[in-house]
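Dear support,

Our group has been running a series of protein-ligand predictions, and this particular one with flavin-adenine dinucleotide is the one our PI (initials K.S.) wants archived with full inputs and outputs. We had some confusion internally about which version of the output was final, so please treat the block below as the authoritative record. The input we submitted was:
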Amino acid sequence: MTTQRIDIAIVGGGLVGSALAWGMRALGPRLAVLDASDAHAASQGNFGLVWAQGKGLGMPAYVGWTIGSARAWPQLAHELRTHAGVDVALEQTGGLHPCLSQREMESRADRLERLHAQAGVERCDVRMLTRDEALARLPALGPDVAGGSFGALDGHCNPLRLLAALRTGLRRAGVVRTHCRVEAMAPSADGFRLLTDRGEVAAERVVVAAGRGTQRLAGMVGLSVPLVENSGEVLVLERMRRFLPFALETIRQTDEGAVLLGDSHEPRTDAALDVAVLGAIARRALRVIPALASAQVVRAWAASRVLTPDGFPVYAQSAAYPGAFAVACHSGVTLAAAHALELAPAILGGSLPAALAPFASGRFDHVRAAA
Amino acid sequence: MFARLPETGAEAVVVAIDGADFEARAGDSVAAALLASGRLASRATPVSGAPRGPFCLMGVCFDCLITIDGVPNQRACMVEVAPGMRIDTQQGAPPLGTGAA
Amino acid sequence: MKTCDVAVIGAGPAGLVAATTATSLGLSATVFDESASPGGQIYRAVTTTPVRRPELLGVDYWHGANLVRPFRASGAEYLPATTVWAAARGAEAFDLGVSGGRPGTRIGGTFAARTLLVATGAIERPLPFPGWTLPGVMTAGAVQGLLKSSALVPAGRVVLAGSGPLLWQVAWQLASAGVAIDRVLETIPRGRLAEAMRHAPGFMFSTYLARGLELIRAVRRRTDVVEHVAELQARGDGRVESVRFAVDGEWTEVPADLVVISHGVVPNVHLPAALGCGLEWNPDQSAFQPVADAWGGTTEEGVYVAGDVAGIAGAQAAEARGRLAALAIANALGRIDAARRDALAAPAQRALATALRGRRFLDALYRPSPEFLRPRGAVPVCRCEEVTADAAREAVRDGAVTLHALKSATRCGMGPCQGRSCLATAAELLADELGADCAALAPPSIRFPLRPVTLAEVAAWPSRADAEACVVRGE
Ligand SMILES: Cc1cc2nc3c(=O)[nH]c(=O)nc-3n(C[C@H](O)[C@H](O)[C@H](O)COP(=O)(O)OP(=O)(O)OC[C@H]3O[C@@H](n4cnc5c(N)ncnc54)[C@H](O)[C@@H]3O)c2cc1C
Ligand SMILES: Cc1cc2nc3c(=O)[nH]c(=O)nc-3n(C[C@H](O)[C@H](O)[C@H](O)COP(=O)(O)OP(=O)(O)OC[C@H]3O[C@@H](n4cnc5c(N)ncnc54)[C@H](O)[C@@H]3O)c2cc1C
Ligand code: FES
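Confirmed final output from the archive:
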């Protein structure tokens, strides 16, 4: 077994690992992405929103981090177009969170108010729309829609093309991608040794971005990243002529015309399809846009989320082994720009910025203690 | 392209293909009627606009998609003709809400 | 909602015999079939065909009536023109989502069944070549179906291309109907016959041999047969106008109004796969098939497969396997004990052994050449999403190293046919790029719906409180 020697090994080649690698691609072959290609990873089964509104209640730092990523997204899209030759179909024309009852309206308004009332949060351009205001923007809304909240910064992209673009771009930059599963990691004299099912890798630094695999691997380098069980299902309708001028939180139309209906939150980690959940998604979507009734459902999928107990990301550097980092987050599409353009350079520089201190994994120590 | 064997027992069924009357036979699928009428293509794809027509005739390939009585994207090979049926070849993706629920 | 003992999906020879057997043992059976009339692929329209000269379709075809008659008398419930689009294991039984009828007069809803007998048969092996998406290029099964169901035969310049029994069967049927076939382009590579000969002893006793050779001879008497065609192209503007083909590197172009292609058939595995049944690669047939025991029992309890969906073996084997699976289900549901099951099974097991003689030889002889299985260049491999062979190969090189990743990276298999037209090719291309064997690939993940259905139909699936709770937002 030959040992490969590199500067940085990123474990996990989903959206998080790949976006980080993108931001470090100047390393070329001294950077390696080790990826097991698990079938139902979130990066191959998400909804594709680049979404800021409503996020960050309970974690003020997350508000600014998310907004920053949404603002930086055009630059990431531009880089991918230039260096990978791929248009990831970024559209930031706003996003509607529809409410299906007066109660939902009130609870939404209340949430946004509490969110923005947090000390030191950046305000993002989001406001409540009455039913008539919502209808004026989207006449296809059904009679059950009481209104909603509209975020000007919100949008969506084609997340599968995003992943493919990152991979193509990384290959062109000379970054190594190895199909393998990292089974064990151990600190060594000059960094870390990673034992994989296809051989050993020695790296000066290691970034664990292995989605649901992060919890186990991070533990090997002194980091605790607890994850909770959560899977989601999505329905895909046939291509239709474009009729959605912007994305809805659970309904969006791709640049190719297909309409996606999302996305459930189920307390499990497997990615089996549950037809009853598909039925529930369909019924809710029909309340929002009744004219979809005759559209044909072409596909459905399920994937498991990378979700921490409080729902916010973990950005952590090991105190015991400062060359080891762990990243785990839900909203890896939205945050792809921040990961590539801000987080990656910081990790390259050797330490996480102070602004990311609230995301350290120590905040879950009480969770572990309780468990 | 296709010719009917002279010795068949089936009755005539008149349908409208792209607005023109055509005499199909009972038991014909819409795809059979289309082919019998001399048309090979049922649609242009929503991906590239390329023309496509019936390929497998057993419901597998979805190349024969066509608009039947106003409902787009029906498999022509899996639907039998009925008197007065309106069959329309289609271009690209349909607009929202054109089907029958 | 009443629950039947066995839901049979597919009314070809396997499903017809299975349903007849099951009801004869006192089980309640419901048969769902996408086609408008019983018979499956080989016996398509056997009760309704407008063709008036029986000899045109061959004696084998009319045997189908012998299966339909007892089936009709069996008391099995029969739902033609009805697609099973989903199936899910419930607390006590499987729920089936069905959709059928004509637009405007749709029937639908859910049915419950204690066991599932999947007899969804085979689909034609889709082998991409340049121009294969042009209108006027059709499969042999398609042309055969037009003859059986509508008494329609090709007119104009007709070229057949490919290899395998179905190609010759259709060539013979067309020739008998008076169609002038311009050329038959046979794609068996040089040297293949010699390779296949090691399986010849079994073939000598095959029922196919005598009849098959007779068909081939009859066709050869009437048309020009070109052997060892290694490359194929259909050309034309908006529709097929000519065919180019290469033999030993030398190209010929002939005008054509219709190009009829056949490269054999592969199992239609989407239903068992979506139910979670294990799949395995059959290297002799270059296709995925469900893992199954000798009775058709799959890796999922209560789910059985019979007929060509369980691995290509032809119509006679389909009858035998349909009977065996029905017997196993009757045993599993406590209708008959194992001794009675085995006694009733013996004749079917003998029939199956007879039917399988010579299969290895046919598989070896007609296995498509690597050039056809593993195309290169701008040829679309996914017809729905128009993904080319090169794009798929490039994605693998970028790191899409599983069938699932390849699909997400390229959209290959994401269109309305749900990958039926590209799955086998995607597997071959992936294996080719990885330098691996197809058998080493993780099988594809196949999901419901099995066919596109309207959103309203999905919304009609019975609601379940915990499922409802998963989609509520902002309360
Ligand atoms: C249904 C659903 C909808 C979503 N919608 C959105 C949305 O609209 N907007 C948004 O921003 N986010 C959304 N997300 C979240 C987003 O998809 C995820 O945050 C993101 O994909 C996480 O990426 P990841 O790379 O961390 O993890 P993953 O996608 O899980 O990738 C991890 C990778 O690591 C590999 N791996 C695991 N263990 C090992 C090991 N030991 N060795 C080597 N490799 C390993 C895996 O094989 C995998 O390839 C959604 C998620 C789901 C499930
Ligand atoms: C196009 C074609 C033509 C053929 N012609 C011949 C021939 O002439 N001679 C010969 O010996 N062999 C022929 N074969 C081979 C043939 O597959 C077998 O000989 C035999 O038909 C297999 O029988 P079966 O019962 O397994 O399945 P099939 O006869 O294939 O029957 C399967 C049935 O299941 C239905 N079905 C599939 N999925 C669903 C679903 N989700 N819901 C509801 N119904 C569903 C199909 O519509 C079909 O009616 C042909 C195969 C094909 C594909
Ligand atoms: S011709 Fe293939 S689905 Fe109709």
